[in-house]
Amino acid sequence: MIPHPYAQGFGFGLMLSVLIGPVFFALLQISITQGFRAGAQIAVGTLLSDMVLVGLCYFGLTGLIAIPENQRLLGILGGLFMLVYGGYLLLSRPPAASHEATNIPTLVTGPKGFLMVRGFLLNILNPFTLVYWLGLSTLVSALPTYEQADDLAFFGGTLSAVLFTDLLKSYLARRLRPWLSRARVLWLNRITGIVLMGFGISLLLQVFWLKRNFF
Asked: pLDDT tens digit string along 170-184?
């Protein structure tokens, strides 16, 4: 018995969720230091960017991004954004609680929706996210038994799985908060910042040194 397109898409979404990229580290860092709601904003921003990319792929608008000059611009913007965000985390210092310097206070998440925008940009400026959705949309379009309703169900299942797993990661990461001290948050920020800067440098090297087209 062939699974329903939604179930097939959900399975592909689970496979996507195990890939470790810049959003993964940002989601964990935000969830641990600022709580589940903050992590959920990152997850929703990621979902919105995935929906944009799915729309681009599904309606055949990827030709604009397939132009080498546009790919390089996307790689440069993504690399710079990850470098700046990683550098901010690397240099940031968590505030000490007023009653005890080693406790972690409730951190301010900034303007409403700011974290959502951060998740959106981290995901959509990563060229490899577009490569994944382009490959998946090509696979779906090649299935002779799929009609438009099946395509929508498939991508609905994929996006549902991504959102579900991101929220689960955020919830589980939030459970680590009681274990944290200010010093541990400092090191968490440093590690996350270094990782994100590494992703950014890798992207910029591929653009300027390897002169790579991403697809």
From this structure: 998 877 777 766 677
Out of 41-45, 99-103, 160-164, 209-213, least confident range:
99-103
DSSP the chain: -PPPHHHHHHHHHHHHHT---HHHHHHHHHHHHH-HHHHHHHHHHHHHHHHHHHHHHHTTTHHHHHSHHHHHHHHHHHHHHHHHHHHHHHH--PPPPSS-TTSPPPPP--STTHHHHHHHHHHHT-HHHHHHHHHHHHHHHT-TT--HHHHHHHHHHHHHHHHHHHHHHHHHHHTTGGG--HHHHHHHHHHHHHHHHHHHHHHHHHHHTS-----
